[in-house]
Amino acid sequence: MNRPPLLWRLLAYAALGVASIIALFPVYAVVVMAVSRAPGFSAVVTPDWANLTLDHLRTFVSTHDAQGRWLFGRQLINSLIVAGAATGVGLLFAASAGYAFSRFKFPGHRLGMVGFFVTQMFPGTMMIVPLYLIANHLGLVDTVVGLVFVYATTSLPFCVWTLKGYFDTIPIDIDEAALIDGASRVRTFYQVLLPLVRPALAVTALFSFLGAWNEFVLAATFLSREEKFTLPVTLYRHVGAYGADWGAFAAGSIVVSLPVCILFLTLQRHLVGGLSSGAVK
Amino acid sequence: MSAVARGVALLCCFAALPAHAADSEVVVWHSYRAGEALALDAAVNDFRAQHPEIQIRVLAVPYGAYQQKLIAAIPGGHGPDLFIAAHDQLGDMVKRDLIDPVPEPLSAQQFLDETLAPLRGPDGKSWGWPMAFKTLVLFYRTDQVPEPPATTDALIATAEKLTGDGRFGLAYPLAEFYFHAPWFFGAGAELLTADANDVRFDSPAATRSGELLRLFAVEKKLVPSDANGALVTEMFNQGKAAMVVNGPWFIAELRPDLPYALTPLPILSANGTPAKPLSTIEALFLAKGRARPEVRALATFLVSDAGARRRAVGAGQPVANRALYDDPDLQNGPLPVFRKQLTNTVPMPTAPLTALVWEPLNEALRQIARGALSPERAFQEAAARVRLLNQPLPAEANPAPYVLVILLALAGVLTVALWRTPTGLLSRLVQARTAYAFLLPTAIGMTLLVGVPFLMGLGLGFFAFGPGEIRFVGFANFTSIIAAQEYPITHPLSFYFTMAVTVLWTFANVSLHLLLGFGLALLLTPSWLKGRALFRVLLILPWTIPNYITALIFKGLFNTQFGAINALLEAMGLPPVHWFDSFWPAFCANLTTNVWLGFPFMMVTVLGALQAIPPDLYDAARVDGASAIQRFFKVTLPQVGPALVPAVVLGTIWTFNMFNIVFLVSEGQPEGSTDILVTEAYRWAFVRNGRYGYAAAYSTIIFVILALYTVLTRRLLSARQGARS
C-alpha cells in the first residue's frame, strides 16, 4: 500500500467534489422543477421550498388509459424489455463478432472493421424514413421485436470495436490451452474468454442499455399503440407544439433516469471487480 | 426516374396493405397534450357511447416525432384514418399524397369563414375539417394595467410607466417572426408577391414594422431582448412583465390565482390599422384512401357543435364552430377575445416559398432588436437570403451514365480484389468458416438495418424533391454545395465556414471529453479513495438525463438577463455576457453543454480500460524504481491508449453529428455562425421546404469527410505502430 501525501489526496477529493457539483447542478435543476408548483424554469431560479409537491411525479406514474389499464406500468415493462433485450442481443452479437475479429484472420477482416465505422458517419435524422421502409418490409413495424433489433444494431459498432480491443489484450495462450484441453471453439468463447472480458461487457452493456432506454424518435415512429410505447415516448408527450409542461417533463425524466442509475450501481461492481481482485495495490 | 421511385414506394406499401385491411377500428392520431388531449378523449368517448359498435383507437404522439411518423407511416400502410395537424403543413401533405379531401361539402353556417378558407383546395373542396384556430392576443396583469391599451401609442405609454428595476412593460419573443407578425401585417407589409414566387418584405411597410420593434427593444427598452417562450411565462407569472403577446396555450401555463385579462391586439397608431397576427387552423385530416363510413361518422362528430363544445369548455380551445361563441357558458371566458382577434388575422401562408422565409426573417428581427442593423437593411438582407435559398431545382439528368459508372466501378473493384487475392481464395473462405459463423448474426443485422438505409440515404443525394415530383439530378446537389458560390468563404453562411466551425467544434469537444474523462477516471482509481462508488455514480449522472432537457436547462443558464451564469458573473463584479450575440460566447455555451453531457462516456471507457491493465506491470515498474509520473507515461498510457482509439474515433464521429445541442442551445445564433454541418442538413430537409435531396447530399459530404478522417487516423496509427516495432 503506498499512499500519496495527504495534500495530494485532499486535492484529489477537492477535484472530485467540484466535478461532482458541476455534474449535479443540472440534475438539481431537474429535481427542483419536478417538485415545484410554479410552472417551468422559474422554479429553478427562485425555488419555493415551503411549497413542494409530488403531484408531477404522481401524475406521471399513475397514467391510465381509457380501458383503465395502468399505462405507466405497461410502458415501464415495455421499456425494460426493449432496452434489456436490445442490450442482450447486442452484447451477444457484439461479443461473438469481437471475438472473431480478435482471434481470426479471414478475407474481409479489415473491410468489416472499417464498415462498422462507416455506418456511424451518416447523420441519423436522414436514416429514419429509409429505416422505417425497410422495417416495414420485414414486418417489424409496430412490434417490440423490430425496435429491439434496430436498437441492438445501432449500438453494435461501438460494442464490437470495444470488445475486440479487450479480447486483443487477453493472451492467445489462454484459448490455445482450452482448445488443447478439448474444449470446442464455442465453449472456449463462452466459458473461458467471456468471463475474462467482464469489465468490457459491463461498459458495452451500459452503453447499449442507455442508448435504447432514452431513444424516443424511432420508438414513437415505430410503435403505434399507447400500451406498447416505451417510457421516453410518454415523457416527450409533455413537450407540445405550443409550450410544454416542464414540471411533468422533469418529473418524468427523473422516473425514466432512475432505472439507468440502478443499472449503473449494479454494473459498477463488475467494473470494480477487476480492481478488488488485487489490481492496483 | 420518378416512376422508379414511386414503384419502389408502391412495392413497400403493397407488402403491408393486407395487414391493415383486416382490422376495422378507426385510428385517430394527434399531438395534443394536457387539457386539449383530455378534451379530445372526452369527445371521442361521447361518440363511443352513441356508436358502441365502432372500435376507435386514439393515439397521442409526441410532437417532436409527429411529422416524421406521419410521413413514414401513412405510405407504409401503418398510418391513422384521421389525424390532427395545423393547416400550414397542408401543402407538404398534399405533395406527399398523404391525404384525401373531405368527401362532403362543409357548411359555412357551422364553421367560421376564417377557419374554412385556409383549408380550401383549388377545386373548392376542403382538405380537412376545421377544429380550432390559434392566434395571438394581448394578455395583461389587471393589478398593473388598469386600462388595456387600444393603440400602440397607448401600449408604449403604459409600458414605459411599468418598465425599470428589472421589470418590463411588455414581453414576447422578439426574434420570432410569429410574434412580430401582428406589427408586420398591421403595418401593411406582405410576405410574398401575389403569384407567391418571390418575397415582398423589402418594402417600406415592413421597415415601418421594424421601426416599431426598434422602438420597443432598442430605444425605449420596454421589452427584454432575449426572452424566449419559457421566460415570458415566468416573467408574467412573477409580475416582471405587465403585458404579454401570446396565444391560447398560454392560459394553461399561468398560475391559477393570477390577476390577468385578455384583449385583442392594439391598433397601430402610425397608420390606424389594427395589428394582424398570423392564424393557424388546426384541422382533422383524412388519410389517403381511408374514407370508410365509420371514419366519416367519427370525423363529423368530432367537429360537430357537441364535439367542439367538449374542446371549448374542457380545454379553452378557440374552436371553429360559430355556435359556441353564442354559448352562455363561454361568454365570459377568453374565447370571445380570440374570436374578435380572428377577424384581424392573416392565415399562415402555405405557398412552398414560405418555408424558406422564417429563418432569414427571424435573423433580421434579431439584428434589429440588437440595434445591429437598421430595419431597412435587415429586411433587405433577409429578402436577399430567401432569394438565394430559393434556387430552382437542378435540371433533370440522364441516369444512364451514372448507372454505367457504378457498374464499371463495381466490376473494377471485383477484378482488382480477385487479382490481388492470393490463389486459393475459396479454400481460405472455407478455412475461415468458424470466424464467419461467429460473425453471421452481426453481419445480417448490420446489413439489413444499418447498411441498406445507409445506401438509400446515399442514393437520395442524387435526386431533387420539388412540388409533386422527384427527379434524378446526378451530381448537381453536390456541385452546388461544394462550389458554395452564394457567399464568400468567411461568411457565416458559407459551406466552408460551417465546415470549419464543425471541425473546431469536434476537436474542442473530443479533447475536453478525453481530458476530463481520463483525469476523472484516474482520480477514481486509487485504492485509498473513500466513497469511490458514490463519486462514480454522481459523475455518471449527466449521461443518464435525456440530452434534450439538459440542452434546455443550459440554454436557461446562459440567458443574458435572467440566467444563473450571468448572475454569477455579476456577483463577482464582472459585466454580463450576451451569450448568443457573437460567435465565441455562443460557441462556448454550446461547448460547455456538450462537454457536460459527454465526459461520462469517456470516463467510463477509460475506467474499463484501466481495469484491464495487468497489475504485474505496475509492480514491475515500481520494482524498477519508476515514479508515479513515469508509471503513467510508461504503463498506463500505452496500455489504455489502444483501447481508447475506438472511443475517440467514434466520439469524433458522434460529436461531428451532434445535432441536439447546437440546434437547441445556440440555435445557430448569431446569423447561423454556430451551426454545424448536420444542423444545416436538417434545416434543408425539415425547415427549408423539404429539400431532401440537398440534405442527403449534405449528409453524404459529412460522411465523406468522416471517412477520410478515419482512414487518416488508421494510417497514422499503423504507421506509428510500425515505427515502434
SSE blueprint:
The complex is a heterodimer of chains A (281) and B (725).
Chain A: H1 6-35, H2 42-45, H3 55-61, H4 71-103, H5 109-120, H6 128-137, H7 144-169, H8 172-180, H9 185-196, H10 198-214, H11 217-222, H12 231-236, H13 246-276
Helix pairs in contact in A: 1-13, 3-13, 4-7, 4-10, 5-7, 7-10, 8-9, 10-13
Chain B: H1 2-21, E1 26-30, H2 34-50, E2 56-60, H3 63-76, E3 82-86, H4 90-95, E4 99-100, H5 113-116, E5 129-134, E6 137-141, H6 152-162, E7 168-171, H7 177-186, H8 204-219, H9 229-238, E8 241-246, E9 260-263, E10 278-287, H10 293-303, H11 305-315, H12 335-342, E11 346-347, H13 358-370, H14 375-389, H15 399-420, H16 425-431, H17 433-460, E12 463-466, E13 469-472, H18 476-483, H19 495-524, H20 532-544, H21 547-557, H22 564-571, H23 583-611, H24 615-623, H25 628-656, H26 659-666, H27 677-687, H28 692-724
Parallel strand pairs in B: 1-2, 1-3, 7-8, 10-11
Antiparallel strand pairs in B: 3-10, 4-10, 5-10, 6-8, 6-9, 12-13
Helix pairs in contact in B: 2-11, 7-8, 8-13, 13-14, 17-28, 19-23, 19-25, 20-23, 21-23, 21-26, 23-25, 23-26, 27-28
What would you call the shape of chain B? globular
Task: Supply the CATH class of the largest domain in chain B.
Answer: Alpha Beta
Strand count, sense and closure of the main sheet of chain A? none
Sheet-strand content of chain B, in percent, reads 5-15%
Structural class of chain A: mainly alpha
Average pLDDT over all residues of chain A = 82
Number of helices of chain A: 13
Pairing-aware structural class of the strands and helices of chain B?
Answer: alpha/beta
Instruction: List segments of chain B where confidence is low: pLDDT < 50 over at least 5 consecutive residues.
Output: 1-22
Your description of this structure?
The complex is a heterodimer of chains A (281) and B (725). Chain A has 281 residues and is mostly helical. Chain A has 2 domains: 1-53, no CATH class; 55-276, MetI-like (MetI-like fold). In chain A, 72% of the residues lie in helices and 0% in strands. Chain A contains 13 helices and no strands. Chain A has helices at residues 6-35, 42-45, 55-61, 71-103, 109-120, 128-137, 144-169, 172-180, 185-196, 198-214, 217-222, 231-236, 246-276. In chain A, helix 4 crosses helix 10 (198-214). Chain A is globular, with a radius of gyration of 23 Å. Chain A starts with 5 loop residues before the first helix and ends in a 5-residue tail after the last helix. Residues 272-281 of chain A have low confidence and may be disordered. Chain B has 725 residues and is of the alpha/beta class. Chain B has 4 domains: 2-134 and 280-343, Periplasmic binding protein-like II (D-Maltodextrin-Binding Protein, domain 2); 137-278 and 353-389, 3-Layer(aba) Sandwich (D-Maltodextrin-Binding Protein, domain 2), CATH 3.40.190.10; 393-491 and 691-725, no CATH class; 503-677, MetI-like (MetI-like fold), CATH 1.10.3720.10. Chain B contains 28 helices and 13 strands. In chain B, strands 1, 2, 3, 4, 5, 10 and 11 form a 7-stranded mixed beta sheet that branches. Chain B has a 4-stranded mixed beta sheet with strand order 7-8-6-9. In chain B, strand 12 (463-466) and strand 13 (469-472) form a beta hairpin. In chain B, helix 2 runs antiparallel to helix 11. Chain B is globular. The two termini of chain B are 55 Å apart. Residues 1-22 of chain B have low confidence and may be disordered.
